[in-house]
Design goal:
The complex is a heterodimer of chains A (about 325) and B (about 425). With about 325 residues, chain A is an all-alpha fold. Chain A has a domain of about 220 residues. Chain A contains twelve helices and no strands. The mean pLDDT of chain A is about 90. Chain B is of the alpha/beta class. Chain B has a seven-stranded mixed β-sheet with strand order 7-6-8-9-10-14-15, sandwiched between helices. Chain B has a five-stranded parallel β-sheet with strand order 2-1-3-4-5, sandwiched between helices. In chain B, strands 11-12-13 form a three-stranded mixed β-sheet. Chain B is globular, with a radius of gyration of 23 Å. The chains are: A mainly alpha (about 325), B alpha/beta (about 425).
Chain lengths: ~325, ~425
Amino acid sequence: MTGIFSYLVFFACIVLILGVLTLGLNLQWGFTGLFNAGIVGFYAIGAYTHAILTAAPQPQYLGNLGWPWIAGIVAAMGVTALAAWLIGLLTIRLRGDYLAIATFGIAVSIQLVALNWEALTGGSQGMTRIPKPLSGVFDTPLAFNLWFLVLLAAVVAAIYFALERILHSPWGRVLKAIREDETAAVALGKSARRFRLEAFVIGSTLMGLAGALYVSFIGFVSPFDFLPILTFQVWAMLIAGGSGNNRGALLGALVVWTIWSASGVVVTKLVPPSHAAQGAAVQVILIGLVLILVLILRPRGLAGEAAVVSRHAAD
Amino acid sequence: MLIRIAMALASGLLVSGQVLAQAACPVKIGGVLPLTGSMAPITKKIAQSAELAIEHINQGGGVKGCAVQFILRDDQGQPTVGVDAAKYLVEVERVPAFTGTISSGITGPIISSVTAPSKVVQITCCSTASPFTLDGRSAGYFFRTIPTSKTQAYATASETTKRGMKKTAVIYVNTDFGTDMLRFYKAALAKLGGEIVVEVPYNDNQASYRAEVSKALAAKPESMLLIGFPKDAVTIVREWLSLGGPRTIALNNSMRTMDFVNGVGAKFVEDFFGMDNAQVAGPHVDAFNKAFEEKFKTDSKGPGVHTQYDALMVMALAMNIAKDLSGPSIKDSVRLVHVPNGTPVGTGPGEFKKALELIKAGKPIKYFGATGPIEFDANGDVTGPALVWKVKDGQIVTDRTITIEEMQALFRKIEN
């Protein structure tokens, strides 16, 4: 019993970290219509910033400054925000698919920098001595994971309520206006570029935060963590959960990751070990099938966007 | 009073829990391998090798009188998926020992977030990145049956200095394998003598390497050490020769394939030489190859096939030697599978049965596996013999073999 509980705590931690990513994407795509296909790039910037600043000093690395955990988190968000702002300045005028291609390319470049700048990132060897916060106090795996779950739950709750607050403010309504009809929004005197850039930077900062949380939870980082597949997983989570709805974004992270993980359990239970390779292929098909079913049965996602524009207009 | 009863009950429960843990049949062993994704083509045989090992273990008597159940999960080549699968195996399936995986980028997070904190022994067939066994994060719970790039790098350095290679340009693939090879090669050269004039990394799967080759040649080298994989190496060597690079070229193990020789052109490669981990010949190796070929109707050649078999055999032997099936006990027994004065045991169910009888009688054993003698060093790494190969009359031939004893002497000389 404790085993299942212990696993579920770990599982929930991963879901919440993915949830932070999905919330970030939801602000960009769900509310502003920005097609960010470079999620993993911002995730990597946050992860590596945190790792480089907090890891224990080692002579062969430039970084590894041994900063406290919280300073690493704040710095990871700051550096990601700065990077997103610079990237945004260059790319935010691009429409739809063009922005997607640009951000995708940038994310791949960031991953290659991490792979090649060995003195800073450890290159393909990865970085191993990343401290886990308060792991001295919570010294069993279960205790640490429980504490981290509480921490993550608090972080996700704070992000959720902050996002709900700003999205229901006039600022949030402008984002939706831009998403629906940019020309009309501009005609009303709103600077579409400024609002798009703001949404892009805030969303990307959340992705950087997710990266920092991930490495301090796992204690290891390598360029392998930032392959493009993750970007598409996060997209699948948002679309399946309900684009334009923050609860949907979190629900999507939970449902899609559950499908991903549980399908593996189901397959190993049903398929004898001698056919493990075929079973694994079936698992991948199963994941695709369930995602397609969700989209057919709930085209707007599990929790679609609420039609209400303003709480004042609801009356 | 109530407290005392509660405590008595609790301790009673604890005791019965331990008894249950002892008697639980079947004994589970967990595994994670990239069954799908970019590594899938090489994983197929590795998974088959694992299946064969489990079959031999069960035919030879299992673990502590129980049959072994192997639960294999897919990591899809993705760290989060691999970590999740490993956590599930450790917590829900309660496996006391674990094998996996191939990519170092997935083995790393599994060590740091699953197996080491939970004190579960992890033996990998294939991950060679150096920090895992060196930095103490694994707390001694991580082992690998694949000789790390260190063995090959030291052997290469010994061979290049022996042949009097001077002013060497090193072109290496920028992966954990390539950077490790270069690092250990340099460390060895520092002790053995020799000079590197330029180090050029390259990224794999490019159409041309003219920029990298030109950069290397600009340093006016008299020889080259090329560390990489065959497809890219063909391109690099052709460009190197066409730009007038010297023909003294040393290669790593991956190039020991006819694809490379024919790709470059057999008549050009006669001056080259390369290194590889030597397959120790002997009845234990032949027995494995034969069993594999009989069961799967295909040869046992391929990366990770032999090392995966040994990973599981070592694990099962250590579990039998351990006084109980807790992680710490198994960890302490891993090095007892190959004791210098032990009775030699080999591969296959018959030999496994023999090993169990020796263990039961309290006698030490000395395991010779599909990859030779499996003796772990203080870091949980194995070393192995190496060979020097060259191309003669269009065929790959072994030039000479460096025995495991010579290799151990070389390690002492470089690391003392």
